[in-house]
Every structure is written in structure tokens, then in C-alpha cells.
Amino acid sequence: MTSISQHAALSDAFRDETPWDVGDDGDTLHEECGIFGVIGARSASSVVALGLHALQHRGQEAVGITSFDGGEFFSHRGIGHVAHVFKNQDIFADLPGMMASGHVRYSTTGGSGLRNIQPLFADLADGGFSIAHNGNISNAMTLKRDLVHKGSIFQSTSDTEVIIHLVATSRYPTLLDRFVDALRLIEGAYALICTTPAGMIACRDPLGIRPLVMGRIGSSVVFASETVALDVVGADFEREVEPGELLVVDHNGVISSHRPFGDPAPRPCIFEQVYFSRPDSILGGQSVYQSRRQIGVELAKEAPADADLVVPVPDSGVPAAIGYAAESGIPFELGIIRSHYVGRTFIQPGDSKRHAEVKRKHNANRALVAGKRIVLIDDSIVRGTTSLKIVQMMRDAGASEVHMRIASPPTDHSCFYGVDTPERSKLLAARMDLEAMADYIQADSLAFVSIDGLYRAVGQQDRNAKCPQFCDACFTGEYPTQLTDYDADAVAGETEA
Amino acid sequence: MTSISQHAALSDAFRDETPWDVGDDGDTLHEECGIFGVIGARSASSVVALGLHALQHRGQEAVGITSFDGGEFFSHRGIGHVAHVFKNQDIFADLPGMMASGHVRYSTTGGSGLRNIQPLFADLADGGFSIAHNGNISNAMTLKRDLVHKGSIFQSTSDTEVIIHLVATSRYPTLLDRFVDALRLIEGAYALICTTPAGMIACRDPLGIRPLVMGRIGSSVVFASETVALDVVGADFEREVEPGELLVVDHNGVISSHRPFGDPAPRPCIFEQVYFSRPDSILGGQSVYQSRRQIGVELAKEAPADADLVVPVPDSGVPAAIGYAAESGIPFELGIIRSHYVGRTFIQPGDSKRHAEVKRKHNANRALVAGKRIVLIDDSIVRGTTSLKIVQMMRDAGASEVHMRIASPPTDHSCFYGVDTPERSKLLAARMDLEAMADYIQADSLAFVSIDGLYRAVGQQDRNAKCPQFCDACFTGEYPTQLTDYDADAVAGETEA
Amino acid sequence: MTSISQHAALSDAFRDETPWDVGDDGDTLHEECGIFGVIGARSASSVVALGLHALQHRGQEAVGITSFDGGEFFSHRGIGHVAHVFKNQDIFADLPGMMASGHVRYSTTGGSGLRNIQPLFADLADGGFSIAHNGNISNAMTLKRDLVHKGSIFQSTSDTEVIIHLVATSRYPTLLDRFVDALRLIEGAYALICTTPAGMIACRDPLGIRPLVMGRIGSSVVFASETVALDVVGADFEREVEPGELLVVDHNGVISSHRPFGDPAPRPCIFEQVYFSRPDSILGGQSVYQSRRQIGVELAKEAPADADLVVPVPDSGVPAAIGYAAESGIPFELGIIRSHYVGRTFIQPGDSKRHAEVKRKHNANRALVAGKRIVLIDDSIVRGTTSLKIVQMMRDAGASEVHMRIASPPTDHSCFYGVDTPERSKLLAARMDLEAMADYIQADSLAFVSIDGLYRAVGQQDRNAKCPQFCDACFTGEYPTQLTDYDADAVAGETEA
Amino acid sequence: MTSISQHAALSDAFRDETPWDVGDDGDTLHEECGIFGVIGARSASSVVALGLHALQHRGQEAVGITSFDGGEFFSHRGIGHVAHVFKNQDIFADLPGMMASGHVRYSTTGGSGLRNIQPLFADLADGGFSIAHNGNISNAMTLKRDLVHKGSIFQSTSDTEVIIHLVATSRYPTLLDRFVDALRLIEGAYALICTTPAGMIACRDPLGIRPLVMGRIGSSVVFASETVALDVVGADFEREVEPGELLVVDHNGVISSHRPFGDPAPRPCIFEQVYFSRPDSILGGQSVYQSRRQIGVELAKEAPADADLVVPVPDSGVPAAIGYAAESGIPFELGIIRSHYVGRTFIQPGDSKRHAEVKRKHNANRALVAGKRIVLIDDSIVRGTTSLKIVQMMRDAGASEVHMRIASPPTDHSCFYGVDTPERSKLLAARMDLEAMADYIQADSLAFVSIDGLYRAVGQQDRNAKCPQFCDACFTGEYPTQLTDYDADAVAGETEA
User: Fold this and answer.
1) What is the pLDDT of residues D94-109, one digit of tens each?
2) What are phi and psi of A240, to 5 degrees?
3) Domains of chain D, with CATH numbers?
4) Which residues pair with D200 in a beta bridge?
5) Tens digits of residue pLDDT in D168-192
6) A214 bridge partner residues
7) Residues of B in contact with A45 (CB under 8 A)
8) Shortest CA distance to D309 belongs to which of D293, D328, D296?
9) What is the value of ipTM here, to two decimals?
10) How far apart are CA D353 and CA D347, in angstroms?
């Protein structure tokens, strides 16, 4: 099938201006999106901007906001940080109304630029319809093929657009019926915030894989991927949107809850606890900071080390390192200093090239580390390239021993639910056993927290093997949904052969 | 019905950069588009850029090119002149292939920016499909309403997109059948260049209201709105695409002609001769320069003046002024000097504000004009505001008499066929009779060429009142098609009340 | 001597945005600057912007304005057209005060960008001092060397900055004395507008090589390079600043005239009449349009041709062509159509590459030219490359004969007085005799107006060989000043060897 | 005296693009500059870019690099982060040569934009001369007045330019003599890196107030404000440039040391240890991280608190908090989470406006803090506004008690040596006593480390009151140099009255 790459002049020009980068060499898992919506608030669009600002750890490469003023919808989207795309106050005057929703996304895949930035919007027969989506629809390709054959024309390459066309072509009489009709056809992970002339719709997939919470500021209702966004806009946390729940809020603030999918057992993503969510968020009733600190405690119990210092890989390893230090009695110290100025790659002078890149982000605190036995704490290992560099940096700074402790089980399966993971064959833990991994990263010892230790840290007694309390497919390969668009080999990975 | 204005960050940012403007105070009629396509040429996209460059008098505010390399379609679009949007040579490397088509447009109405820039493109079930359109579909709103109700989602606010959705949802088996099915449903004026994986389609509406010509460079086939674009790319003119003709060219250069609408009598737009087309184009076998010069001759016969100098309003009045001077024996002189630097509006100093704006564009050649009786030649009068300023400028420069002669009949009806005209009530000739118009513009005398004089100048013996040889609705109100989307009042204008 | 190229990030970034180009392949002589100043006017800076807008034919690549509000000086400068650099109205609010001056320049030579854009400004011991200069100082290098040795630090590579440092380091007591002291040390051509806290100074070099006129709007005093700028701002022409005259205007409008150089015989540049000045300007009491038309008359007398059409090379050849046609009785017709959209170079398709570039700017009016004998009228021949292309274009369009007539004598010497000329060895007339030139441009015949014919056309009886009434060094090699910085060979050129 | 604000179009346009801000509400002291130079290295300019990248905590708003290729000097400067201004690799090709130096600066004061970005450069009589300066010259205004009266023209409003003009106008025979002649005339704080055709000059003021270190990469010599920059470029630390030492390095790597000021007792800035320098730098033989950790230890001894958690104000309070926790036995926990996305101010929704701004940067870790007694550790208090907000944030999150401990003595005097401090009357500690400060920030208790405690933490036995080992004027008011440009009142501040 032919396709077009509409690398419009504008988006290209803009990309050149983008002065930041992700700065992690692709060796980290990334949540792909954050969503936020508010209804019944004055300056709704600026509340959304503030909320999205607090969700940028979930997606920092593009941002969009759509508002509705009772008559018309308005939208502003751009590539870059929230503070960049919405730097002019005037923009909010062009996004009037008391209902608004927004979206931050991690990457603009496929060079399709602006067209894929959400919220997506369409003029349907009964009025405007916007949608902001965190997650991934695992039968989007299959559904799209059908829709195109019947005459639907897609604007973007986003899986999310499938939902809009399903709504547009559904034969049910009301918009809500058409929307539920659409959701019944899709599989995968989704937290959605939609706006229509009648109000706002927020929902989570039947398993609640991706998070979504509800809060209030006075009489206005707020939805957000995480509670930290409620804190930042001054909203009170009310409750989570339940897995499989669909909440409809009208312009008078009247809320109705719908459960079109019955009552399946929830499987929220456990990696939100490990890495994705902000430590100051509350997830499933659990403080993310405390979960991570507790993982460190479990790790210290399961994998003690004889060492002088506990050193976190900044910043994500800090809470677990505090827990590890507290449990083990080994002092917590900043053996690695992180630069606040991460940027694009420079040309490096010849002989110092090898380490310059990682040094721009992290630098060893030599005076502290020299001659010491170090326990390094990191959140996870993906490809292993960063771990190798960090271990080497500690040794170059004079560390006598380096013991690596990882605050999650080995990541040996890809995620198909809205997290940007390398294909399975690139995952270090899918390629090697523990010993080989320790050799690869050149650590004196290496240990991961156990899956049960992880479940304990997040407040469970243990993992219910028959019906796990979380989606932990990246650690176990037990995917809780069908994966229609992906063939078995892709899911299993070549390492299984 | 709600609608969205997606004034994306990027397009806004870009608009600020646009350093030119139309510079005519809205007191001119504008052709809205020019189109160009080539198939079977190396560097097809750069040939298209060159061709569009020569068609910018038909549309200078936005430009787009789509190419096809045998496998995929590529596209680049932007706001601004061709030389600006395609200033980087690298862009052509990103538009590979031997087939390409492009479009220049006059305005980006409705703030919808980039989305409305043509060629429009869609991934249909049988592959990519691009369309570039010059003209206006007069039942587009009606058709769109139907399509949206059946589930089609529109990307743009352009009437042209209706054609794509009609093709996408047609039930005919082949693309060509589906395309003809779509054309049968639309009314109005259209010259179209479409590209599909199988080749290029060029066609004109049954009356041939908008122009389209075919040429060749070696074995490659070229389509363009005007012959001047053939000259500039080094192509030989072959023939006009006939009114109601649909030409299909495949990648081997095989051309087939189709006539799905039978054989209605053509009605090409006569204003192309008066103003829209470049003077160095050949239109319907007639040199546009000679037509305009001959209008001046007819005007001198019909409306002589006792004067010292014939002065053209630059630049469009020059050919008619040469004809008028030659016929009348009065010397042709440049009594008005046109600045090459037309730009946005400045703050003007208080007491000279009244004339500063027009003076930035036109300045009287005082030494020449002072004490002289002047015949001023202009192409047309729309609102009359420019004529008033120009007459005043001649008087301020010391002209003793100013006789205005207009190289077209009075423009007293709006155009609904792709020309940007004010609503009827704004047209000077719809509001006043000849004497009142002369008073309004403060000329000593005023005359327009007669409708028959105009027909004579373009090579007809006279106007065939029963079945006019041209569309001259802007002069006569005789619209040659239905105008479904426009109610009778809009067409007739309030001046008829 | 070492030097720095401060290609600041900003200026480079900006250059990429510049969407226009000069578009003449370097085959034209260019005036390098235009200057404008006003004192005693409300919104002085916007008056200056308007005036500079009318002077952009003298320099379109960069523009600057400096204003003074009674306490402080303000400045805004940029690369690009006046309408681009001053497109935001807010800029004028940042340029307050009743005195302002400005400058447009042709090119930003040497990549030095913003630093060389005038007016130059310095904080001298007795306050701010700005200077805008049209012309060229022919001993600037020599003076600069001295100044640097004494400790002066130059900001720009502009010859104009020498004047500021001479003023700054002069030992005379008053600013006016120091300024005259500086002028006595410099040689060459200069029209200057300076602003100081006390008021405005305007002056011309002793020979008055470059033009400068004075006008009034009510009680405010205006200086400009040409009268057309007075017209555009609504000022009344008062008189020329006399060669060697220095006019000082204070904030009460009191004007004092000084003549520090005695009373040498003036030698204004005759090429201003031929090409540089706008046709609607009055220069030395003579209408430029009439001068050019009269050159055409002289040319028709001196070099008649047996032909069917007189065709101007647009736009500069038009007035002479009108004169030639009137005198010869051969009809004046537009055989070449000029595009209004001149832009950067595109990739051209292979076989049409040769003519594509010139065709983008000029296209033959084939229907008119085919089979005709043509007299082509152009203003001058510099390198000859454009003439060759234009003659060829006429032949390709079917002209049976092409007779080239040039409205100036052969340009066979470089200018050192502020005009951008190629070095002498590149000038066609310095390399070849008449016959060889005709061969080179492939014309059936070629003639230039004689130097005496030119003097007659501009109102003289003939050229006073002992003491010519004009600087005509580009035609005669008789330079009216010393050329300290240029050695004899550079002036004479290698063709003299 | 009049002055000009040359807010050039370009710099303004650029500023709009700058997507970051300082984000501290002006309630922090800022080092104003970082400098870096290398001689004898291939790709010298890219080594400098890498070094400056590591020094951006000393100045992140503008950056410049100058290089020398043996013949010419080259320069590139811009507003923004290093990674932004040098994002295109091509820039380094335009900065060729084996010697380069650069500068980052905190702010572009005075709206003067690009002109003030260092290294400053001038073409002196004996060749190019560049200078990069960290510090402040406290008699710059006085010297400038003299220089301007003698005819020097200043390009910038930077105090640094005074040095260049003193060099340019010195009558000594060699450049080195002229440079020392200039230094003898200036007073204040300076670390300088200069480049000349003969090589590089690095020097520190006689008291060594600002830091400067020397390192080597192979045969090339490197100078930098801090050792962290040596780490990042892969250089080995060699030694500090001594206070009052002037090092000259030629292109063969030959180094000569000069001591033109005799041997005064050094007084390096103690605030470098407290806040300015990166924790991974070594300063005066002391690890900055260890100094800060040790301040926390001293603080715990001097001002213990009965509390449940030690919470750092991120990120600068972390090392002291670790020391405080270790000494006191109270657990170290992250009670405040810092956002990595700091940006410009948004419109905030009405009722949450009060705290939104600080919440965008810092958010309380509610689950941890609620019901706890907190010891908050911050590096210093300037105006007190941030402390007030942070204390309030802890209380809003449910902290039962908040005890503030500050890792420096009260800051009650302004700095005149290159640190951006508010005027004295704005400093909280200059306005209030300890108790009033505690009330103002609404803390349950407040304590600062003592001046002797601070001296102990940085490795001294105590402060030598007669001849202090450091410049600690911001804590004591004992300025170690004359302050010619500042009158006594400004120094003492109105609070002394």
C-alpha cells in the first residue's frame, strides 16, 4: 500500500529549532503519553497547560490542547515542551471556553509531525469530537484496513484515529452508543479523554492498563494520567477512573458512570510504579516514592552487598537507593553528579570521544568514589549500554568494586501497550542470563529484585500466578490481551527460537 | 454545527515570517489558483516548481507539490512564494520520482492554514490519490453534509476535498469509474490534475470555465493552467485540454481521452483574457497580450478622449494603453511609476496619511503629468477605491483633466467559479450607474469597453446572446451552471432588492 | 593583518529566512545606498521607514533606523526589505522621538552582517552620534590603519566607521569642528545624514557626486537621497543640498548652512540619470524620466534601425524605448514580459536548463515577436551576459532580426564612489570594441548613445571636456578625486596593459 | 550622557525562541560567568563547546566561542544554551584552528543582546585580541569615562571592554606589556582567558577571587573555571592558576608564568564552595561535594532539631542534607520532588494561582511528609520569598513542624565581584534578625551555619579575622578591594542608615 510522508515545510523548519533532546541514547523505556482534561473551569486551556506541564515525564516531544467555548472547538499544537509551545499568553486567548483537554507525547514517530499530535479532532455529523489517548491499540492496523476499504480517509498514522472513524461510521443513534460501539471493537490499552459539544468523556480500557485519575477544583472536574498533575493545578484527588469505566461529565458538572465491559479483573501496568510515574504521584492508593524506596529495601534483603557507599544512578535510582541504604546501613552518597544541561551531540575531540557523551550528562564525583566499594542502584536495564558506561565511569573514578543492583526484575519482553520498548532481541535480559549480563556491564556483581519482591514492595503479599494483580508482561511475557496486529514471532522474539 | 480552527503553532509562527503581501487593498479580482503537473520526467518535482513559479500571478500565498516515485507519494507544502517554500534544493531530493503535480493558491482563507494547501492527498483503498484544483464547486456544502452524515471525516475546509471523499466512497469497481462517478455529482468550475499509482489524470469541467493546457518536453507530458508555464519549463504547447475532457496518462506516456459529459457548448471565462492570465500566454488560440491591446483599440474607438497623454495604471493597464495610444494617436507615457517593493502597511505620519499607502505602490511622474490632460487606462473597476486614489494622485500631480477608460465592461456580478470577488453589494458597478461612478472616482469622464467590443477584441464577431461563447457572468449575471450552495439572494445581491 | 568574521548565529539564521534575492546575476550596476532623515516630526521613525521604502531601488538587502527622543538614541536594524524588517508596528514604539534617520544598503559584503548595517552609532564624549552614508571613501583603508595604531577599535568593516573615529579622536573643541576636521581628512564620495543630541547634520562631498535633497513637511525638515522619497512621505521639495554644503538643523528647525570646502565645481554622478534614480525623481532640476526618454530620442537619431517593433528590456529600458519609438515612428510594444516573482535558483530539468533561469524573470511574448525585426532597448551593458540571453530569447521566439540599442555610452571603467561595479577586466566594453561586443551578444547590430548625446539628453549642450559637468568616470576613466587606497593598476585595469 | 539601546531585530526575534528560563524568581545568587580555553588541540572549538557545556551552571543565557587558525580569528555567539547555539555541527567547521576560547554568561543585562556576549574581540594594531572574563571590574565606569574622552568608542556595555581599550591605547611596546599595563589600572575580580596571534594568556586577579584551573589533554593546554570541565573534556587537572598569576602559552605549548602584582595573600570566593561550583569540582584542593556535606555536619552540630525527616530543597541542598542526616541520625528522604521541566510562566487559574508557580518546579511528596516533623535544608536565603513558599508547601502537605537549616551564614551584603546579587536592602538577612526571619518564612525554627562552622567545613581551623583566608564579603561586609565605581552608601545599603 502506498503512503505519503507529508514532511511539511513548517514542521521541518520547526524541528531545527527544537533545542532539546531526549538524551538517553534510547536506552530507557518510555511511557508514550500523558493526558489531562478539565470541564467547568474558567481559563480551562491554561489549567490544561499547567497539568500537562506536570506530566511531561510521560511525553516531552509534542503537545496539543483543544478547547470548547460552548459553540466552537479550538486547538493549538506544536512540537516541543509545553513551556515552549505555549510560551505566548495570547495562545490561551485563542483557546477560549470552560472545557479543554490536552496531550503530551513522547515521540513524533514516522516523520508525520504535526498531524499525529493529539488531541485528534474531527467534525462528525453531530458536532466536533476530540480525543486524547494514552496507550496502544493492538488491532489498529486490522481495523484501519477495513475502514479504508469502506471509504474512510485517514489523516494521521496514529492508532488513535481508528477510534474516531469507528465512531463516525457507527450506526448507533447516540454519540455515546457510537463511542461504546467503537470501544468494543478495539483491543489493547487505552486511557482516553474525549470532548464533545455535550461534555467530556473519560475512560480506561477493561484491564485498566494505563492510569487515569479524577479530581476536582471547586465545581470543575479534572482528569489526569497521574495525581501529580492534580497537585500542580490545585485540584483535590477524588478517585481513580476504574478499569473498564466510562465517565461522562456534562457542562453542569453532572457525572454518570458506565461500565460497558462488565467487570474484568484489573491488570494495571506495574512499570508505572517502577519508573514511569512521578515519585510524588499516588497510584492505586500507593505512594510511588514509597514503592520505589521499598523496592530498595527488598533488594537490600534479597541481594546484600559488602560495600562502602550506596550510589544512585540519578535521578530515577534515588528512592530505591535511599531504601537500600536504610536497610543495609551503608551510607547513601551522591557518587554521580547529573548535569542539568542535556543536549544534542557535539563533535568530540578524538582521544576523549569514548566517554564524552555520557560525561556530558553524568560525571563521577571522584573525590568521593576513589578507593571505595560502590553499590550502584538503577531502576532497570534495557539494552545495557548505559549500565556499561556508568560502571566504567565508576571504575575510571577509582572505585575499587562496583556492585550493580536493579530495582526491577529483568526486562525480557517488549511492551505493546503504549510503552516505547526496543524489539525483544535488543533487550539484554532476553539475550543473556544473569552472569552474562554482569560480565557484559563489567560489574563485580549484579542482582535484580525478584518479581515477588516487586509485588511485595507495591503492597501485595505476593504475585497471584493464576491471575496476576498487575500487567507485568515486560518481566514475564504474560500479555493480558490479544495482540491481533502482531504475529506470534514478533511477540516471542527471535531469542525464543 | 461546530467547527474547529486548528491554527497550529507552526503555521502561525510561519505566517509572521511571510514578508510580502498582496498589496492591493482587496480592490482587485483574483484568480484563486494555478495548477501544473508532469509525468515521465526526471526531477519531476523541480519541473513542477519551475512551472508553478510561472503561475504565481494566479496564486502567490501558498504552494504545494506532490510526487510519486513508483512506490510512494511525497509531499511538501508551505505558505509563501514558490521561491520561498522551495528555497532549499534538498527539498527536491525529498520529492523523488518521475511524476509530480503542484498547486499555487491565492489565499489561505479561514485561518485553516496548512491543511488547505493543495494538492490534497489521501490514502484510498487502492493506493494514494492526490488532487490539485483550480475553480470552485458550487454544491460542495451540500455534498459535504451528506458525506459527513455517512461517516466521512474532512481534513480541510476546501471544497476540493469533497471530490476525494466522493471517490473514496463510490461503489464503482475501478478508480477511473469512481472518479467519473464523483465528477458527475459536482457542479461548478474545475480544472483538475490528479495523480494515482497508475499515472496522471487531467480534466476540465464540461463548460471549460477554467483553463488547462497540455504540452510535452521530449517524452514527458505536461499539464498547466497557462502556456506561459510551458514556455518557462521548455515544453512545447500541444493543445488545450478540451472542456469536459478527461485525459489519462500512464507511466509509459500512453494517453487516453475520455468525454464522460457528452459535448456541451464551452463557456471559458472571458476575464482570463481581461486580467487573470499572463499577457505572454496563449488562450483559446488567442494571444492574451494582443487581446488586451485590441481591447484598448476598441476602447479608443468607442470612447475617444481629447487629451495629451495616454497613461496606463501599471502594470495590468499597459497593453490596453498601448492599443489606445496607437488607435488614438495620443502619446503613450509612464505617468505613474510603480514601486517594486510592495509591503505591509506602515504607520503613517498624521497629515500625509491619506495618500501614503497608495504612494508606496504608485507614484505620480509629476514632471510629465503637470498641466496635461490624461487618459488613464485600467483593466477593471471592482470597489472603485483604487480608481479614486489614482485619479486623485494625477490631479495632485497637476493633471488638468483625467479621463478614465476601463478595458472591460462594468463588473456588476460576483463570480462563483474560483475567482475571489467581493459580494455583489460591494461592486461599484452594481451600486451606481456610469455617471455616478465617474463622480465617485472624480474623473472628468469615464467609459468602459462594451461587452460586444470585448468579444470583438478576443476574436469574435459579437456576443452570441442565446449561447454566449464565454462565461461573462461577472459582466452580465448570466451564470452558466446551477449554484446549489448559494441562494438566489446571494447571487442577485442586495442591490437587486 | 588578522581579522575576524563574526558570523553570529543570529544573522546566519536570519539569512536563511530572506526570501528574495537580487535576481540579476550580478550583471547590473547597483547604487549601494539610500539615506533619509527627518527632524521635528511626530512619529519620526515611521516617516523614515516610509521614506526608505521609496529608496529601496538604491539598496534592498539591509535597513536600519536610529531615532532620538531628546534624551536617548534608539536603533533597529535588520537584513531584508524595509517592509520585512519593520513589519511589526511595535518597532516604531521602540524608536520614539521627533528626530530619526535611516539607511538602506545594497549588500552586506564580507559576511559581517548586522555590524555593517547603518546608521552606525557611537557614544562619543559629548553624547550619541549616528551616521548614515551613501558613497565611498577612497582613502578609508589608509586612515583606518593610522587610527588603529593609535588605539581606535573598529566595530565594522565599513568605510563609514572611519568618519566616526576621526570625529572621536579630533582635538577640536566643538562637535561641528570635529566633524569638519574629519571630513577634511577623507576623500571620495559621500552624502551623509548624522544625528547628535543637538540636531541633524546633512552634507554632500565637495563635488556632490552622490545626491541629497531637502524637503519640508510643515515645520519638520527632511533629507533624502531622491525626491521620490519626499513625494511618498508627503513632503515638499525645497532644494538640493549643494555639493560641499553642510547643513545643520537644530530641534527648533533652525537651519545653518556651512561651506567648509570653498566652492569647487560640482561633478554629480551622471549614472543616476541613466539608471540609479527612480524615473519619478527630479535630479539637478531635471526629470529622470524625461532624461531617459530623451536618451532614447538621441539614440534613435544617432543609431536608427530598420525594424518593426521597439521592445524595451523591462523595466529599466522602458522610458528610453518610448523615446526611441516616438522619434523613429516604430511602434513600442511589450515583446518581453517580466515576472513579478523573482526568486532563488531552482534545480532545472536537464535539457531546458540553459534558458530556465532567465525565463523565470523574463519571457518572450512569442505571438508578438515571431517573424518581426526588433529594436531592443536596454539601459547599459555591464558583463554582457544578460544581453546575450535576452537576444537569444528574442531569436528563440522567432524574431527575424534583433538590433540592440543601449541608453548609455559603453561602461568601460569601474566606479569607486559607492557603486557596485565589477573589476574593470570583467566589463564587456573594457574587453572588446563595438563590433566584437555585437558578435558576443549575437545581435544583428549594436549601438550605444554617445557621451555627447547623453549630455544633451540631460540638458547640457555638450560635455565640457576640460571640466566636465558630471562625474562620468565609468564611461571616460576621468576620476574627479584622488583614489589613495587603490593603486594605479586597479584603477586602470589589466586591459590597459 | 546619552546611550543607545540597539535592540536589533535579530536578537529580539531570537529571544522569543529561547524556550527556557532561569526559573528561580530571582531569589538565588548567580555566578555570572564561566570561561574555558584550549591551545594546541585539533578541533579546539568543539573541545571548548564541550567544556562550556559543563560550565553552564555558571551562566546559561548566552555563549560564545572564538577560534584562531594561525591566520585568522573566527567567532560564533548566540543567546541560549550551549547545545542550542552550537547545535549544528557545521558551526565547528566555521571555527577552525588549534586554539579556541569561550564564555558562558548568566544574563544579557541591559537589553544590549549580542554585543555583550563574550569572548569580546578587537582588531588591535598588532593583530586580533579576544578576551573572556569571569568577575567584575569595580572601577570600569571611571576608566571608561576617561577612555571615551580620549576618543575610544565602546561597542558593548560590558565592563570587560575596558580592558581591551586599555590594551589598545597603552604605549608599551609589546602586547604582553600593554596587557599588564591594563591590568594594573583595573581593580576588582577577574579570571581571564585571552587569545592573540601568538598564543593564549590566562590570569587571575591578585586576590584570586574568581577560580581558574589548568589541565592538559596530551600536549594541549586547557584552562577552565572549574575542574568539572576538565573531567568532561577528558583533560587531566594540573594545577590552579595562582592568584595574581599570568600564564602565557605559545603555539608550541611553551608556558611562561608571570607575577606582575607581587604576592598578595589570596582571598578566593567562599560562596563557590557553598553554591556556585558544581559538587563534582575540586576547588583549592577541596572537594566541593565534601565541603557541602561537611557544612551539613557542622550545621547538625550547631543547630540540631528534633524531627522525623531531613528533607533537602532540591538540588542544591542535597549534599548538606546528607551530611545533616548522617550527623543527626534523622533519615534523609525526598520530601520535595523537582520537575525537570522548568519553563516560562503560564496563566494560572484563579484560585490556585498562589502556589502554582512554585509547584511547577517543586511538588511536595505528600504521602511521605504528612504528619511528620521536617528539617528542611537549603543552601542560602537571599530575599526569602522561595523559603516562604517551600515552608508553606510542606505545611500544605501536612508536615506537623518545619525546621529550616541553612548551609551558609546569613547573606547580608551584596557582591561586587561578578555575582548577581540584589541590592542590599532586598536581602532578608540585611533587613531582619534571626527571629524575624524565622517568622517571615513561617518556619518553626531557623538556623544558619556559623561563619566559623563554614570555615571549618572547607578545611580551615577557623576564620582568620585579621586576614581572612577567603572573600566572604557577602556574609561579613569585609570587601577585600577598593570599590571605586560604587559609593559608600551603595555598598553599605540603606539598611545601615
Assistant:
1) 999 999 999 999 864 5
2) -75, 150
3) 30-266 (3.60.20.10), 291-338+357-459 (3.40.50.2020)
4) D195, D249
5) 999 999 999 999 999 999 999 999 9
6) A223, A239
7) none
8) D328
9) 0.89
10) 8
B345, B357 in Cβ contact below 8 A?
yes
Given an 8 Å threshold on Cβ–Cβ distance, is D8 in contact with C75? Answer: yes
When pLDDT is averaged across residues B263-271 and rounded to a whole number, the result is 94
- CB-based burial, B99-108: b 16+ in 10 Å, e otherwise: bbbbbbbbeb
Q: How far off is chain B from A357, nearest CA to CA, in Å?
A: 30
Residue A346, classed as helix, strand or coil, is coil
pTM: 0.86
Identify the band that residue C80 occupies on the pLDDT scale cut at 50, 70 and 90.
Answer: confident
Q: Strands (DSSP E) along C112-209, which ranges?
A: 120-124, 127-137, 188-196, 199-204
Contact C279, C268 (CB under 8 A): no
Residue B117 backbone phi and psi in degrees, to 5: -75, 130
Could you give the count of Cα atoms lying within 13 Å of D246 in the half-sphere of its Cβ?
18
Per-window interface: A 102-141 vs B, CB < 8 A: 114, 121-125, 127-128
> Can you tell me the distance from the alpha carbon of A266 to that of A447, in angstroms, rounded to the nearest whole number?
30
Helix (H, G, I), strand (E, B) or coil at A312: strand
Chain B interface includes C362 (CB < 8 A): no
Q: How far, in Å, CA of A49 to CA of A41, rounded?
A: 13
Best CA proximity match to B98, nearest among B25, B173, B47, B62: B47
Chain C residue at shortest CA distance from B293: C333
Give the chain C residue nearest D63 (alpha carbons): C9
Burial of D426 (0-12, 13-18, 19+ CB in 10 A): middle
Q: Which residues of B touch C367 (CB under 8 A)?
A: 282, 287, 289-290
- Residue D343 pLDDT > 90: no
Identity of the amino acid at D210: R
HSE-up of residue A27 (Cα within 13 Å, Cβ side): 17
Among D440, D420, D429, which Cα is nearest to D495's? D429
- A to B CB pairs, distance under 8 Å: 149
In A186-333, alpha helices (H): 227-233, 271, 288-302, 318-328
Compute the C-alpha angle B327/B332/B336, nearest 5°.
140
C9-17 helix and D9-17 helix, angle to the nearest 10 degrees: 90
Read off the pLDDT band of D419 (50, 70, 90): confident
Cα-flanking dihedrals φ and ψ of residue A158, to 5°? -80, 140
Which among A1, A68, A76 has CB closest to B7? A76
- Which residue in chain B is spatially nearest to A78 when comparing CA positions? B9
CA-only gyration radius of chain A, Å: 23
Tell me the average confidence (pLDDT) per consecutive run of 10 residues in chain A, 497 residues long. Answer: 28 27 51 92 95 93 95 93 87 95 76 76 94 95 95 91 96 95 96 98 97 97 97 95 98 96 93 94 96 98 98 94 98 93 48 50 93 97 94 96 98 91 92 97 98 97 95 96 84 56
Q: Of B176-180, B343-347, C247-251, where does mean pLDDT reach its minimum?
A: B343-347
Farthest CA pair distance, chain A: 74
Which pLDDT band, with edges at 50, 70 and 90, does D489 fall under?
Answer: confident
Selected residues 59-88 of chain A with any CB under 8 Å from a CB in chain B? 66, 68, 71-79, 85
Q: Chain A within 8 Å of B358 (Cβ-Cβ)?
A: no
